[in-house]
Structures are given as C-alpha cells and as structure tokens.
Write a structure and sequence with these properties.
By secondary structure, the protein is α+β, with helices and mostly antiparallel strands. The chain is built from 3 helices and 2 strands. It folds into 2 domains: 47 residues, no CATH class; 33 residues, no CATH class. A two-stranded antiparallel ribbon has the order 1-2. A hairpin with a 7-residue loop joins strand 1 and strand 2.
C-alpha cells in the first residue's frame, strides 16, 4: 500500500512527481530518506532513525467486506502506479 507521496513543483503546475513506497522506508529508511532529499534537491542530511515512532496496534481486523471493497475501488489506480514505478507493488487486485 502506498501511504506517502511527496510532490514538488517549481511552478504552480506540478511538473515533478515522486512516489515513495512505505515498505522501502521500513527496509532501508536512510536510503529512502536520501532519495527524498535528492528528489527535493536538498542537501544531504543524516536523520536520527534509531527511535521507533508512531507504533500502534489494531484491536480488530478490518471487516473482510470493507477490505474487498477498498481493494476493488483502488485496484485500477494501484495497477497504474505499479506500471509507473516499473515494479510490482504487491497489491492483491
């Protein structure tokens, strides 16, 4: 699932689009943050990635019907995004 999308524009019309996958941040946060900084044309910076943040726990599973509905609604956009990224983003469409 894509949770974070960063957009940057030098003009009022968005002429650059960056898509960063949450799973990649989990696997290699420093590497992904470096990609974000490069995309934004910002200087290198070393982030403190040692602390665990925003940890939560769901008390219940999502209702199966709701999950299936959401998958069906977002499937076409998710497939297009996979094509744009040039990789399988592992959605269950």
């Amino acid at each position: 699932m894509i949770r974070y999308v960063f957009c940057h524009s030098d003009t009022l019309i968005v002429n650059k689009f960056g898509c960063f996958v949450e799973k990649d941040f989990i696997i290699g946060p420093a590497k992904e943050m470096a990609k974000v900084l490069q995309f934004l044309n910002m200087p290198e910076f070393e982030f403190d990635l040692s602390a665990v943040r925003n940890v939560g726990d769901y008390q219940e599973q999502m209702d199966k019907d709701v999950r299936e509905y959401l998958i069906s609604v977002f499937c076409p956009q998710n497939q297009k995004l996979s094509e744009l990224k040039g990789r399988n983003l592992d959605w269950s469409c």
